[in-house]
Specification:
394 residues, alpha+beta, Butyryl-Coa Dehydrogenase, subunit A, domain 1, Butyryl-CoA Dehydrogenase, subunit A, domain 2, Butyryl-CoA Dehydrogenase, subunit A, domain 3, 3 domains, four-stranded mixed beta sheet, four-stranded antiparallel beta sheet
């Protein structure tokens, strides 16, 4: 058992402030600047950075617990920070395996840099296996990226954009290029962020569309050139593992908050028929028990998979079905738990001022993150049944 205490980094009073502001940012569709400032001051941006480089030196398992706790207070803040933590987590995954290519991410995070995740593209269901963004090589080893990235969380504040694009012109083309584009004076005119984030939920993430128009990643920030398609490259594994685990952690944290709110409500609502609180109603007790049974499976699963990544456990070809599976289970469980929490809480949860109303909208975003249900099922089917054969495989 770990002796890690998440309250040391995310104390109750900090979470209370974040929760209070979450409703305001949701209502006003604004980025949580004060949340980020307080979290940065607490060292949260560098929780996965080694102590010798200025970070907290936590494990991925520790970060999963923290993200569950943060999401219970401010889901959109947690989801936004998640994208920064993905890159610091990938840096840790690589470093743990003797690959130092993302050391600049670790030192940058410790120095206050904010890293954004520029992978998503409209209609690109290849995700990490392909890109519609053009990556043009330059004589000095740098790359110029032209394309459109969507769902770029942390848009108002990021300082480095980790992204990928397709090099189709080099002698060994095609190659998927992973690199980091700085937000600097040199980037002006080559990079634009649209003010287009007006969504049903997760509004404070401000995950705006990013337009790349020859935005340059310096040669020392070009970290991978790999063949398109499924890849065993440690960078791909690092991105997929950390993204899926931390994403599942956020939605698991939302579920826990919804469950807690349902329990609180059941203990205070009183039946006019019986005079008893709803916590004594057999139907309500069954519903809350059902929520708890669904929720209780996820934290241990997240802990196990996180420790396996930290401990360099080799699941071979099973890794991707395990990782896409935990994300799928977390978001479907969270949606179900929030739905039931609303039924337990009654009509008051239908008002926009009610926290459950916001959680109901926030949790829907989980359906849109990779791996989507179709991809998760296809991955699981391949893991258990083998690849498709014949015409169905094309």
């Amino acid at each position: 058992m770990s002796d890690f205490d998440p309250t040391g980094i995310l104390p109750d009073d900090l979470l209370a402030r974040l929760r209070e502001r979450a409703a305001v940012h949701d209502r006003e569709n604004t980025f949580p600047e004060r949340d980020l400032a307080e979290l940065a001051a607490a060292g949260y941006l560098a929780i996965l950075v080694p102590q010798e480089l200025g970070g907290a030196g936590l494990t991925l398992a520790d970060a999963s617990v923290l993200q569950q706790r943060l999401a219970g207070a401010a889901p959109a803040t947690a989801l936004a920070i998640n994208m920064h933590l993905v890159w610091t987590g990938v840096a840790k995954v690589l470093a743990d395996r003797g690959i130092d290519d993302l050391r600049f991410v670790q030192t940058g995070a410790a120095a206050g840099e904010v890293f954004a995740f520029g992978i998503s593209e409209a209609g690109n269901d290849l995700v990490l296996s392909g890109s519609d963004t053009d990556a043009a090589p330059r004589a000095d080893g740098s790359y110029a990226f032209t394309g459109t990235k969507i769902f770029t969380s942390l848009s108002p504040v990021w300082t480095q954009l980790g992204l990928h694009g397709l090099d189709t012109t080099s002698a060994d083309a095609p190659k998927l290029v992973y690199a980091f584009v700085p937000r600097s004076e040199e980037a002006e005119g080559h990079l634009a962020v649209k003010d287009d984030w007006d969504t049903l939920g997760m509004r404070a993430t401000q995950s705006r569309t990013t337009l790349l128009q020859g935005a340059v990643a310096p040669a020392d920030r070009v970290v991978r050139r790999i063949a398109p398609g499924p890849s065993p490259d440690p960078m791909v594994f690092g991105i997929f593992s950390v993204f899926e685990i931390l994403l599942a952690s956020v939605y698991t944290g939302i579920a826990r908050r919804a469950l807690d709110l349902a329990v609180q409500t059941a203990g205070t609502r009183r039946s006019k028929k019986t005079g008893l609180t709803y916590s004594q109603d057999p139907d309500i007790r069954w519903r809350i028990a059902d929520m708890a049974l669904a929720y209780d499976a996820l934290p241990p699963e997240l802990a196990t998979l996180s420790r396996d990544v930290d401990g360099l456990v080799d699941h071979g070809g099973r890794w991707f079905s395990l990782l896409s599976g935990v994300k799928h289970r977390a978001v479907t469980m969270a949606k179900r738990v929030v739905d039931d929490a609303i039924l337990v809480s009654g009509g008051s949860s239908y008002f926009s001022s009610n926290e459950l109303s916001r959680l109901y909208r926030d949790v829907l975003a989980g359906l849109f993150h990779p791996s989507d249900p179709e991809s998760a099922h296809a991955t699981a089917a391949s893991a258990w049944l083998g690849p498709l054969e014949g015409p169905a495989a094309s």
